[in-house]
Amino acid sequence: MISVFVISILVCGLNLLAPEGSALHVSSYTVTLLGKYLCLGLLALALDLVWGYCGILSLGHGALFALGGYAMGMYLMRQIGDRGVYGNPELPDFMVFLSWQELPWYWQGFDSFLFTLLMVALVPGILAFLFGWLAFRSRVTGVYLSIITQALTYALMLMFFQNDFGFGGNNGLTDFKDILGFSLQSDTTRVALLMFSALALGLGYLICRWLVNSRYGRVLMAVRDAESRTRFMGYRVEHYKLVAFMVSAVLAGIAGALYVPQVGIINPGEFSPVNSIELVIWVAVGGRGTLYGAIIGALLVNYAKTWFTGAMPDAWLFALGALFVVTTLWLPKGVVGLFSQVREKFLKPSARTREQEVADRG
Q1: Can you give the pLDDT at residue 338?
Q2: Tell me, what's the pLDDT at 128?
Q3: pLDDT at residue number 350
Q4: Smallest Cα–Cα separation from 150: which of 283, 281, 273?
Q5: Distance in Å from the first CA to the final CA of the chain
């Protein structure tokens, strides 16, 4: 995580201080791209907490990410005011176009940044609580839980596609101008958003690391490895799973909220089930159950996606599928486990035995 901060600070410094004609200058595009990657890294971290340490393979984290993004998008739309195409100070352009007469009740309060931050955490957190409370109490696990999370994501996507729902329908929310009075197009704002993304990722990592290293984390891993036995020992398994799922949902919502001002748009496509499946691949490629591996996987796969969509856009899905197959067959511990795999395979048996003896002695 320290290297992430160092790279972020270096990129920001070279963007602001190095002149544009200099070979050391980092473009605003690169700053925004790195900020976007860090947000996706936070999303992967959120999934790894529940999948890697609790055994919950959620295929719905894309929806939690999108809900946080929509909350921030509503705030940014309210900041446009009368600078929209129709010049209406109260209603966003799409509502004026659809002949809405007044702002819906669920848009109230989003002119306040503090209220928005509260909603960024609360909306995904409450959804995770309701879903988890029903699912975990009913002891829905495994592939059935994954299918339900995917169905929930798909249902939300269909709902947000509707114009009558009041979130811009197919086009979503876009044409953002500024945040807290600062233009989203200025280099300073982009740099600030990148640093906030790095800070959120760092704090998210520390919180997750603290959780998994605590007694709570050890129970969580016991649930993952032997849920029935853990329940038999007297632990309320559903409570442990519910807390992890809610913390993960809040982290995913924060990631979405930081992502939207940097990419300039949020639409129902973010709810697409494909996004949630890609997220699982990021974590698998990086290394499930390591936290930092999930972040590395998100950075690597999204960098590859950026490169492929520029150079060979038609080949990206094939490359992604091949990457997942290779990871499943030959990299069960992901990229971060590659070193230990090679070491185990090529280390001499005698040396391995000596190391085992030393380990056994404590």
Answers
A1: 76
A2: 93
A3: 55
A4: 273
A5: 30
Average pLDDT score, the chain: 87
Residues of the chain below pLDDT 70: 346-362
pTM above 0.85, yes or no: yes
Rounded Cα–Cα distance for residues 171 and 282 (Å) = 27
Structure confidence at residue 354 (pLDDT): 59
Token pair listed for 105: 């009740």
The token pair that represents 133 in the structure block: 């409370």
- Extract the tokens encoding 235: 């632990």
According to DSSP, the residues that pair with 265 across neighbouring strands are 174
Residue 3 has a pLDDT of 76
In this structure, the strands spanning 182-183 and 178-179 are antiparallel
Q: How confident is the model at residue 28, as a pLDDT?
A: 84
Residue-level pLDDT at 349: 56
